[in-house]
Queue: 4 jobs
Job 1
Amino acid sequence: MTEPDQTPGLSHYRADGAARMVDVSAKDVTTRQATATGVLRTRADVVDRIATGELPKGEAIATARIAGIMGAKRTSDLVPLCHPLPISGVEIDVVPAGEVVEITATVRTTGRTGVEMEALTAVTVAGLTLYDMIKAVDKAAVLTDVQVVAKSGGKSGDWSRTTTGAGA
Amino acid sequence: MTEPDQTPGLSHYRADGAARMVDVSAKDVTTRQATATGVLRTRADVVDRIATGELPKGEAIATARIAGIMGAKRTSDLVPLCHPLPISGVEIDVVPAGEVVEITATVRTTGRTGVEMEALTAVTVAGLTLYDMIKAVDKAAVLTDVQVVAKSGGKSGDWSRTTTGAGA
Amino acid sequence: MTEPDQTPGLSHYRADGAARMVDVSAKDVTTRQATATGVLRTRADVVDRIATGELPKGEAIATARIAGIMGAKRTSDLVPLCHPLPISGVEIDVVPAGEVVEITATVRTTGRTGVEMEALTAVTVAGLTLYDMIKAVDKAAVLTDVQVVAKSGGKSGDWSRTTTGAGA
Amino acid sequence: MTEPDQTPGLSHYRADGAARMVDVSAKDVTTRQATATGVLRTRADVVDRIATGELPKGEAIATARIAGIMGAKRTSDLVPLCHPLPISGVEIDVVPAGEVVEITATVRTTGRTGVEMEALTAVTVAGLTLYDMIKAVDKAAVLTDVQVVAKSGGKSGDWSRTTTGAGA
Amino acid sequence: MTEPDQTPGLSHYRADGAARMVDVSAKDVTTRQATATGVLRTRADVVDRIATGELPKGEAIATARIAGIMGAKRTSDLVPLCHPLPISGVEIDVVPAGEVVEITATVRTTGRTGVEMEALTAVTVAGLTLYDMIKAVDKAAVLTDVQVVAKSGGKSGDWSRTTTGAGA
Amino acid sequence: MTEPDQTPGLSHYRADGAARMVDVSAKDVTTRQATATGVLRTRADVVDRIATGELPKGEAIATARIAGIMGAKRTSDLVPLCHPLPISGVEIDVVPAGEVVEITATVRTTGRTGVEMEALTAVTVAGLTLYDMIKAVDKAAVLTDVQVVAKSGGKSGDWSRTTTGAGA
């Protein structure tokens, strides 16, 4: 379990409970960055095929990476109350490691709100893309531990996940 | 770890390793269904706010559900090698339970390929939508255990996850 | 006010009130057609400019028509509980008439559900496109009387609006 | 009928009549807001079902609201000559009232053009979503009186519809 | 110049010149395939970098291929009068060859219309993606000779381009 | 062949060859413009039909123009490593000329990166739209010579293609 913070409520909802896209007009335009991670858990032999075995050109990893980058750009189309943001940079690492593939996405913008959702969307779309590739050989794969690990910029300042976070 | 199966390779790739959208023209058009689940892990007080506290109209859960249904329809736009499919039905449950919110999506089609990816996409987009709502009050939330739990229809027949799956 | 019919409930919602995309797997694949209409109300001098005055190539009407056709194809992206449908034909008429521009869209599919929503979306997107063109010269324009006027195909059979409909 | 204003032409078209997306590079970046309204006209018993009757969680209204918010973000994808805009806030009210459901959308941006089209698109997509829910029980519903009621920001200054507008 | 054929008119337009999406309801659902090609012309040193030089993982080619596959799925969103089609397979080759990169896309469907436009869209989006990668090192690159080279299925039967086509 | 320039590498890729969306946060926001051209090559009788013959309202050219403008707005959805940009203006010329139709697109933005890709996408989508219209009467049409002809704004300054470019 994680530590409570001071924020009193869910700003995506009005006092009457109705969903809204929060007005951010008054927020400063600053450079903001967020990093999210996630893990696709499967079998070692499947990870091996993704990493080196039968895919000489490495297109499995490239496909996941491209899908994640494109997914980041679609965030506000997918998440109803997200603001559209001018994403200024995305990097995604897709790293095979034993029985898992680790996915890390860092997104940067110069805008009025943070890019946590964009980083999380990049990770999940990259993860779903890997899932799609391997589901014929492992129906039991799991996409797991999708979380923000660091953010910077904006009024709330820098933040990074402590080592004993909720998803550990 | 999960059990290996007999499928020899990753059909999304050619012998030379290049990504492709596999030709499914010769597959039968049958009714197919898949169910996926996932969990958003946060704090009990946050789950409480989502479920009943300050949201009299229940729009947090409704927003996640609607986002998941719309996400299912965008699957082939997001996952590069997925076939576009005429989705014929989607149901999503978003159930607050202590420190977590459990998400279950069932998707049905009458088509040439299964709808596992559509069910997984529905779960992840619903989960990201919840994440977006609560990130101001819990930066450390985690979307986890996203997995297919059952599928039916198609040549490979019915399947359901055993109770000791990889993501448990 | 219109006549009540016999249908007992709103099928887009479950007994517990949750939204869903209704399962249409068991419905027949038949050819279905729907026609919708709508009216953009402005000033006669504005309609005149749209129709003939300063636009020798007629691109205002063509732009609205193209937008409507493309809008019809986006219906299931916009309306959350709509099924994606393989639209097989669209025709749109955009007819200047005094102080109004009349819009009529007919959409056809061979599928499991009707295309009323596609016809309505075509009309509204065409109407919004006209609104966009003229808003600099008439802030007070109104898009009005958007309604289905006829449908055919499917189990419920043919239907057409009586002359004294609700929106008259 | 509404009052003519001084603007001489339709700026979306060149002197030769060709459609274009008007260059707004030289316009100031300011905070701009627009409010649009519309009405879905059906039967009192249908409105009653939407509002309270069989939908305990209120997901019909929430679904329309979410669809409207997401629709606002798709405006420049739908309306050919609209500029893409960084929407900074959206609020939508969906209010059952006798035989009608009243829809009001307010959209805000900090950009180079106004957000009337975004507000109108939010209203129409919310209205189409309601139409979709009830079309099985009222084929004769009408989406009507879709119009801008107020705008502020930008060079042309504040404006609000007089009580005897064209759509009244 | 190519040989005239017997088709009397442009079916995308009515007798009055208005654009429409042609009704294909009466056409047979058959398996259809189309292959299109195109060429990105740049400098040999740039092609070399794409192919082998500084890109050990080959992600430039993979990126173009993935973009092309995803582009094929967006065809009916981009080309106004195209019918949405259930694409059943896509293969794309991206082959560096001296001063050019050759792109070939083959698309298959089981539907009521052909997939020439999907194959052409796949080629152009893959080509634009390559262009984007190299524009910093070669502003003068050209995407050229984009054309259908073969199609099969449907009433009009098989066709392939003769060696002395218009674009040679 | 074109002249080599000084840029040492392909910035869309990291040292390890992985694709990324380059971070442009540090670049200046300036007004930038790019013009691209392309040619659809067909037969003179087909061009004649497009231009005047059977299409009194000129909707073939208008349809291509509208598709190109809308395509420009979709660039970052189609080209994986493109940054989303607030396009501030688009003009497209579609000019029948003998056996060809010449397409020219000029796009303007106030942003952190150039709009060459947006101009190229506008040209190709307009070209594909024309191709779609005429493919029933000329299977052998070719979309060719798609290239940037001029750009201005940004750090690299103004540039225009010399008369003996690679695609001539």
Note: Residues 1-7, 164-168 of chain D have pLDDT under 50 and may be disordered.
Job 2
Amino acid sequence: MAKNLMKHGYPLVIYDVFPDACKEFREAGEQVVSSPADVAEKADRIITMLPTSMNAIEAYSGANGILKKVKKGSLLIDSSTIDPSVSKELAKEVEKMGAVFMDAPVSGGVGAARSGNLTFMVGGVEEEFAAAKELLGCMGSNVVYCGAVGTGQAAKICNNMLLAISMIGTAEAMNLGIRLGLDPKLLAKILNMSSGRCWSSDTYNPVPGVMDGVPSANNYQGGFGTTLMAKDLGLAQDSATNTKSPILLGSQAHQIYRMMCAKGYSKKDFSSVFQFLREEETF
Amino acid sequence: MAKNLMKHGYPLVIYDVFPDACKEFREAGEQVVSSPADVAEKADRIITMLPTSMNAIEAYSGANGILKKVKKGSLLIDSSTIDPSVSKELAKEVEKMGAVFMDAPVSGGVGAARSGNLTFMVGGVEEEFAAAKELLGCMGSNVVYCGAVGTGQAAKICNNMLLAISMIGTAEAMNLGIRLGLDPKLLAKILNMSSGRCWSSDTYNPVPGVMDGVPSANNYQGGFGTTLMAKDLGLAQDSATNTKSPILLGSQAHQIYRMMCAKGYSKKDFSSVFQFLREEETF
Amino acid sequence: MAKNLMKHGYPLVIYDVFPDACKEFREAGEQVVSSPADVAEKADRIITMLPTSMNAIEAYSGANGILKKVKKGSLLIDSSTIDPSVSKELAKEVEKMGAVFMDAPVSGGVGAARSGNLTFMVGGVEEEFAAAKELLGCMGSNVVYCGAVGTGQAAKICNNMLLAISMIGTAEAMNLGIRLGLDPKLLAKILNMSSGRCWSSDTYNPVPGVMDGVPSANNYQGGFGTTLMAKDLGLAQDSATNTKSPILLGSQAHQIYRMMCAKGYSKKDFSSVFQFLREEETF
Amino acid sequence: MAKNLMKHGYPLVIYDVFPDACKEFREAGEQVVSSPADVAEKADRIITMLPTSMNAIEAYSGANGILKKVKKGSLLIDSSTIDPSVSKELAKEVEKMGAVFMDAPVSGGVGAARSGNLTFMVGGVEEEFAAAKELLGCMGSNVVYCGAVGTGQAAKICNNMLLAISMIGTAEAMNLGIRLGLDPKLLAKILNMSSGRCWSSDTYNPVPGVMDGVPSANNYQGGFGTTLMAKDLGLAQDSATNTKSPILLGSQAHQIYRMMCAKGYSKKDFSSVFQFLREEETF
């Protein structure tokens, strides 16, 4: 992502908790600093990308966080996938300092990040969206405005929850059909021309031998890991609990990916749920 | 369906447990007889369409069933949606009488039946498929060979199970997103260009106001009733229990549609699960 | 069970598909015959004990089944755990032959069978209950009349479904508590004096180290196998589907035990669901 | 609770966000103050009882919170049912001020509160337990030490999750049995002498007509409300997500009580899940 900003001619001020991650940029002549606060001192457009809600809170509100030195009028874009209620909290604190916060979680994986083809789902004040899009457009081919702060997260979480549900559903339907005597390729073809069709069945089929170029064709290597899916489903669960929204299948999908993590699937692509269900009874 | 056979010039021999259903055909000059056995006596290509496994067993093996008078070499096509293991049983009994049995459940609804645009999923001996297709092609634009007897049912059941799961998933994701502040149309658009995309989100969206011409735009009238979906999920459940296939979300979907039937949704389209989940807490 | 009848002085006529199982009785001077029909020819009180619905149908209605030679007025007691609707079907056929059928499934395990301490749940005509109790009382300390034919099965199935649910619930609650820092013995003690108390927590606790003399204290050897629990939950599922009864947790419990069977737990006691949930995420 | 402390001779300093709630105590001559901070200024043993985690944080860390004026060496006991991770956070902040924090959630309902028969589950430093017990013993007949801070909450949450699961399981099993033809009282009797036995079946049976003196005998009035159970299950869900503990049935129970709240059951006792499942299909 940072490299794509460089390619578009933006000078960078970089911080990462793992100094090695910055090496390449230092060698390329970019500034590498020693805390988020230092970034905020030198830059007025900042993009953050963190693994958890706690990490994001630390990066913004921690002892050496962005808020310690943020300049008035700065534009702060958080591309982490975190709890939408945390995004809203951060936005409030940023606003108190006279700056602007937007949440802009990303989808598309490592390949899309490299090629600048990510999708960004952006939440925040609509007037600032053009400014955000200028930057995000360097890294993504799709930059979608979703509404007030937190709605970027909401869109991402809802999509991934539906993705998890339809992936498990595809795995269950394919497995049941195979046990009932259907050929997997034929079954996939029938589903894909019928009302069961979904991205998990027609673009990312979880059954080995049905499609080429997907993780199921490569022993579930690469792709979107089970651990990451379990994390996103945890966020969906939290949001649903907070808003009192019933998610009967979403909850169950969360529990299934949680169990897969504990049974050796944590690093496999999330379509390996087919393999998880498939294991045969042995006597 | 029968009218489309007439249009293609086939003379008909008709039986229905409700005599009124035959009136129109009698007036059009077709033969109406008084039992399935009588049909079998006069015709050597027979299509049956019954609501349950028990009804199908009765029509074939009952006291006045087809098997009482079936002619050698007859082609019997059952278009009911029933338990695949029942289809296999019927096929065995039919074979003993020197005739051929194929299961050919249908999808597409009343509109597609009228316009001859049904999809047939056909299971049975491959050599007989051409003969079956000649007839079924008068009623459906898609006639797919699925494999041995029972696989037509299997394909239909697997598709409808995945459909139920992705419909409930779509309803949960849309509802959660709306409660998190997203506009429903925008959320549907985002899902449909992302990995959450499915037939239930892009063709048959369950949220009123998102699409035109679907049951959700018409108070969930018409379409595919909740009772019928609950019935198909019961068949999926039975098949999964018999083959020891885990269907964690499929089972849950079955229970959800079962509950909806008991809570006033039995005659509404199955996309009304959105309304079922949506009902607000009141104090 | 047969030995306890011998002890009470009843002469036996025995049949088993595995001839070796009869050896001991032959040596003890009891009659061993070569089919269920032969038993029916020689005895007028018959007790059957089969693993599945299909086996029971075969034993009664098969080519050499009991119904081929059953004498008028015979009392036929089926102690198999099978689908209540199959029990009702068998009862009808038996009645046609002028004999009486009762379903009397059993609970208590191998130990209780040996010591004559089984529990029998009996369904059938009330006037015949005394006659059934005379025999069943030789093998069980608890013989409970449940109502019309099939209600014995119904009671057993309902009990085992609730047992499965509360066992999984106990395992989930104990596991969650332990991860939250509670001592397992203390947590069990608190649950058992509170409203979470159940047989699975106070008599058969699934957590190793909490109780002595239960399968969890012995690496989940012995007890009631996961495969058998999965079978009984399949029956509960079928009965619920047939009667359109929602069983949200019962369905889920069924799927969980089904998955455990496929993951190496089939021969372990059903309380091993704690171990199944417990497995830690590894990196 | 406060009255039971008065009865034991403790002078009170009282604050409640609803001033009316303090009226009775003012008239009885107790001190009523205008903020949690004012309580902390005047008392060195403080008991808090709040409905949510957010309320508890406000009462301790808010602008007029206890921590603003807490005295060194004070003992702060929080009897709210909240997220154990919040209890731990509060404990840290309290400790920084040189005071002691314990979590002591309560079970038993309004009746037990009045009669001084509550159960307290206490988490915190063991050396302080005796001091806490002196106070809590005035209000409860059972004061159980559970371990480090947060384990009181953990014990309560685990108990209530298991309670919810076994209550729903009891309702499903009773409903299925009734539909299969069993008499409810007889079925309850059989379960209660078998392995399905649990508090929900033998002490608080959810089926009207089975027991006297329980909410099911009184149209589900009184008892423990569905909204409160949904809240506790939300806490269990959060704790499980945070600790990556799979709770397949616990999650499902959460969703079921969530849906009941949206369908008119929010103020009924949580055993009304039987009624919720029971509603008949109508045509």
Note: Chain D touches chain B through 13 residues (CB under 8 Å).
Job 3
Amino acid sequence: MERVAIIGCSMTQFGQREGWIQDLLAEAGLECLEDAGVDADDVEHLYVSNMASGEFEGQTGVMNGLAHDIGAIPAYTQRIDQTSSSGGAGIYAAWQSVASGASEMTLLVGGEKMTHRTTGESTDVIASITHPAEYKTGVTLPSFAGMTARHYLERFDAPRESLAKVAVKNHRNGVDNPHAQFQKEVDLETVLESPIVADPLRLYDFCPITDGSAALMLCPESVAEEYADDYVVISGIDGATDTHVVHEREDPTVMGGVVESGKGAYEMSGRDPEDIDVAELHDMFTILEFLQMEGLGFAEQGEAWKLVEEGYTERDSGELPINTSGGLKSKGHPLGASGVAQGVEIYEQLVGEAGQRQVEADVGLCCNVGGFGNCVITTIMEAAQ
Amino acid sequence: MERVAIIGCSMTQFGQREGWIQDLLAEAGLECLEDAGVDADDVEHLYVSNMASGEFEGQTGVMNGLAHDIGAIPAYTQRIDQTSSSGGAGIYAAWQSVASGASEMTLLVGGEKMTHRTTGESTDVIASITHPAEYKTGVTLPSFAGMTARHYLERFDAPRESLAKVAVKNHRNGVDNPHAQFQKEVDLETVLESPIVADPLRLYDFCPITDGSAALMLCPESVAEEYADDYVVISGIDGATDTHVVHEREDPTVMGGVVESGKGAYEMSGRDPEDIDVAELHDMFTILEFLQMEGLGFAEQGEAWKLVEEGYTERDSGELPINTSGGLKSKGHPLGASGVAQGVEIYEQLVGEAGQRQVEADVGLCCNVGGFGNCVITTIMEAAQ
């Protein structure tokens, strides 16, 4: 079967944005068409990764609105929701559309508009991702993160500072990302002294609420060659669920969805963790970066914190730079956009368009986490010059 | 490429149901596993067609809830939304998952829980499918239907009764569908004297608001042979959009999405309209059955009403039985479930499991319409004994 390629990308400014979801989707969609050099008329499938435009803005049918706004009618449209991993699921859906022969040119646009709602209202929508047995008794995603972090630190004798160092690193990377919500460094002290949210986690252990959109253009490799000299292929992709009731998991430090989706993506690509040169992980909470590093085989269980302490994941000096984009932590986390934006960063790193953030990389990986690992999708991409 | 088969189906009782969306999805999901003889462990991809569980019930992540409820974890999950054609889009997504080689066993469950909300609240959610330039000034889907029906009747000199006969036929078919919301006949007079909703259309020209769920099991044909003697293959499938602003269309009686998706499905299957033995059309409003008959080539433009008058689409005596299930009109229209339920009816007709509704058929077609034809998906299925 022919490989599926990515030939262009775009990303809007992340942060607090004017307008509504359709503006953000159209902005990213039009820029991606331009970046890929593709006419809107040639888009056969148009996918929108978006979790909750209906809940956030009372507007549904946003994929058809996007087809209208960018002039892609009569392209086939679909909205993809896999909660906070909708973007990664969008990459998988777009991959399937091309790999199945259904489409020779698929535009994927992920986006979410959240900041016009209060943090409480947004949290209500986000909480409903998980099982009501938990969130209706107050165990929301930040609570899971706090309990898991406490357990991890105690069990593996990890210092609290190691978590804070994830935030410091990702903020430092975000300084060089002109689209990031926060383009500012934070020091260890600021993280450690920020207000408590879910003990031991504090404000700077959490990603913000964000508006934004990002896009990727996918097609068969034979078509990619007509459009670009440098492009990227998706060599491995898989998704998996873990228990929907989080407290039913045997080991709270193991995210089964990360392990299973990673296994599938490695197998499909014929790659090992050692082959990965750069990775975007879903650092919605700092503790999640540790859990994904371990679940994906970058570190042994309970040892990811040591690699972070040693600088193994630093952008400029580390062996495996993680979240060169700034991660969800500093770049922001517009739910449906985040997984697509991870793909944008890996694409730019692999084709050498990452500017100040550029690292040496031929093989990259993204891991996009829904809920508290309730559903996860892992994608491996490779440069194909 | 290997063909994609359907090896089992299920459908819950449609109507006003107790419980919530997760109950309906689980009921259909478990029944489909049993009908197909597939273990939950063997489901690789689990897709949920659902437009608005967040808006209707404040619950998101329902695909992960379903994986939990039927024991399908760690299957990959995704929610598919294409507004009122989410079910048809789910068939396309499930088809792509199998055709791309990503999954060897995909369970698709469509469902919606609507009746606990007032009709006004439901109408608000449904109105938001279309472009705000129209619905925010009061032009909702029923208004489009009324205006289009008036235009059609005047322009093609069709009698008002011809529309009412669609309702009478579909109600008559629904009597023999034990899962239909309304299992009762209505006579012409009842339809013609029912309260006006959007002149010239009256209450009985509209489908009801409904709770319900339906499911299909898809796999490669080589796998199907291990599970079933009689199964169905999807020989053609395609989707398309039309203008998102409805009044921008050149001819209000032509649904471009129907025409384009039909063309794609016919081309892929190598079939013509003449080859279709039975069809499920999206009769959300009676006028839509005419427009789809014409858009799909079953009748010339402006002539579908004549075929209905002649009895061409009757179940027991017609040349092309349409909506043998009772259609959305009498079966009900739980948004995300409807397109899947169309597939269930065609599957049952093709494998000879349609009971009292059985017609002679080797090739069947479903057309699922989102919005007012803003997005449409057409599927052609064939018996493969």
Note: The domain at 4-117+210-232 of chain B is CATH 3.40.47.10 (Peroxisomal Thiolase; Chain A, domain 1).
Job 4
Amino acid sequence: MFHNDAFRALDRQECLRLLAKVPVGRVVYTRHALPAVLPINFSLDADASVLLRTSPGSDLVRAIDGVVVAFEADEFDAATRAGWSVVVTGRATIVTDPDEHARLSETGPTSWMPPQDAQFVRIESEMVTGRELRGTPGVR
Amino acid sequence: MFHNDAFRALDRQECLRLLAKVPVGRVVYTRHALPAVLPINFSLDADASVLLRTSPGSDLVRAIDGVVVAFEADEFDAATRAGWSVVVTGRATIVTDPDEHARLSETGPTSWMPPQDAQFVRIESEMVTGRELRGTPGVR
């Protein structure tokens, strides 16, 4: 699916509304010159950027700080073969401003990991694309 | 999650067993020098390579034929914050052998799209990695 015209393109507002529904997405980046992907829970900031909470000095942070990455989320129902996918593409940056860090510690994404120091990463929503698959009968 | 040591690494056999449970994964590649990701249904071949069914001349095929890509699948439960993720990294190639094409037309992945000519793409499972997150209480 999702490789020809048999889907509906979603506008930016639809994409952001769908993104806000799911807790986990996937950061897509390059690591040691190979394509890499890492699932991570996230939240959306008021400016529609994607907020990640990771640990200082993590491999992920080292790989993506200052780099354009993609962030993908989706939902599919195998029974109806329907679903959607949204991709945010933009620069990822570590949040270094202390006030911003304090704000995100209160209102940003929580961690799915045991307690640890938090480092927040923001992915700007420079490009937001999405597609909806409405479901088709199974065919070979 | 999945960015420090608080998860369990899965061995290749566990990864393949989990991959076989889900119908949809995500191809991770580079498109116009940017990270790109596309959800697609798939199946596993007997040699553990990932099989995709797409349409001839699709953007995806043009972008990944002959290239090393990552293919990711996962399952997460937001309530328990538990789940798993598996990534297969390897070269993607269009299946050009007529006998192989015929075999996959019978036993390969079905399409979630309306009927169309099929083109099969195989992603070799050169590297298979996976991680399990067992679930932790929510913490900020």
Note: Chain A has one domain: 8-132.
